[in-house]
Write a sequence for this structure.
């Protein structure tokens, strides 16, 4: 735990979490240096689907997700960017009645928490999204009209440039080789170009946070999991809401350009490789045609892979590192980091500068992974 306001902060990682923290701290008058081994948004922040949603969140995440959406609403004006943010709604499709029963229970709880979400019958789903194939395994859905999507690269770069305008310094293509610590206290970051001194270090390097934390005796239960996305050529308006089909693991959205962005989960061993698996694309294409047969003659123009930094309970860690004063962990977002990035930046600023974050950080403590009673996070809502 650290009580005093820091004067010099080094952030490792220029993804959306690191850049949002840099912006919020620099705007509050803190001297900030961001160290990034590649370029801004090189990792998961530049390789995700751009979804911004509050429904289908763990109970502990829901307040963060709802607060993040409020930030996204005015982010373009605040950062001076065009993020392509749109509240198109989000359809989480159920394959059968068992999934529908789970949706009904969680929607009731989310509505009680103040989220605008509802249950749709299969017929209502097809009325809302007529491009969906009525033969697809769709028994109904949960729908949240305030969910949406945007361009994740535009948002991440927007934060980085706004942070620079506020005085933050970015050292790109500069790998952090170690966290400098002495006597149980972080003193800065070692890089190939030399040490960068600081009185506080924020570790926001996604899955690459693990070896850096290990170097100072902190073990992070985070694994790198590869996920893929493909993008089609632009097509006429096909489906406005962001679509997710839980049983198949597929998701899709139509960008403002008209291009369809499509992703689908893949069971593979943990890996740091961001190379595209050639076997993934044909399988994903077959799956999406089950739902959107209108894409049958549409060309795929590019495909990429990126990494989720996944914890055992699929929730993030925002916490002080045990045994290393002045080292704050902000990692393990498990595929939720882009949508939660803006609120994470604000809450970390409140923690470090104001001393009182406006939302609870305790559910995201590293210590939750210790002890015999550990299990998965509270129910997904």
């Amino acid at each position: 735990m650290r009580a005093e306001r820091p004067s010099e902060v080094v952030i490792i990682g220029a993804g959306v979490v690191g850049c949002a923290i840099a912006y919020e701290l620099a705007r509050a008058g803190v001297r900030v240096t961001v160290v990034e081994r590649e370029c801004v948004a090189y990792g998961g922040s530049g390789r995700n689907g751009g979804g911004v949603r509050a429904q289908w969140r763990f109970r502990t995440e829901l307040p963060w997700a709802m607060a993040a959406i409020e930030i996204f609403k005015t982010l373009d004006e605040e950062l001076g960017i065009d993020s392509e943010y749109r509240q198109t709604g989000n359809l989480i499709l159920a394959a059968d009645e068992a999934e529908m029963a789970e949706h009904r229970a969680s929607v009731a709880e989310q509505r009680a928490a103040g989220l605008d979400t509802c249950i749709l019958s299969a017929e209502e789903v097809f009325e809302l999204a007529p491009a969906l194939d009525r033969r697809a395994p769709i028994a109904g859905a949960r729908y949240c009209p305030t969910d949406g999507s945007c361009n994740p690269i535009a948002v991440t770069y927007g934060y980085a440039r706004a942070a620079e305008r506020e005085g933050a310094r970015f050292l790109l293509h500069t790998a952090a080789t170690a966290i400098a610590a002495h006597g149980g206290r972080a003193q800065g970051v070692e890089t190939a170009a030399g040490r960068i001194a600081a009185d506080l270090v924020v570790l926001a390097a996604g899955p690459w946070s693990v070896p850096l934390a290990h170097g100072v005796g902190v073990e992070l239960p985070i694994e790198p999991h590869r996920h893929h996305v493909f993008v089609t050529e632009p097509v006429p308006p096909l489906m406005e809401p962001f679509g997710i089909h839980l049983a198949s693991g597929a998701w899709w959205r139509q960008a403002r350009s008209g291009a369809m962005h499509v992703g689908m989960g893949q069971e593979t061993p943990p890996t740091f490789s961001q190379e595209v698996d050639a076997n993934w694309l044909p399988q994903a294409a077959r799956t999406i045609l089950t739902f959107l047969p209108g894409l049958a003659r549409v060309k795929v123009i590019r495909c990429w892979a990126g990494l989720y930094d996944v914890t055992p309970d699929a929730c993030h860690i925002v916490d002080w590192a045990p045994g290393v004063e002045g080292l704050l962990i902000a990692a393990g977002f498990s595929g939720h980091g882009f949508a939660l990035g803006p609120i994470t930046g604000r809450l970390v600023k409140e923690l470090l500068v104001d001393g009182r974050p406006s939302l609870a950080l305790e559910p995201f403590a590293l210590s939750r992974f210790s002890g015999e009673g550990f299990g998965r996070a509270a129910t997904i809502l």
Notes: Confidence is low (pLDDT under 50) at residues 372-379. The two ends are 31 Å apart (CA to CA). The longest strand covers residues 300-310.
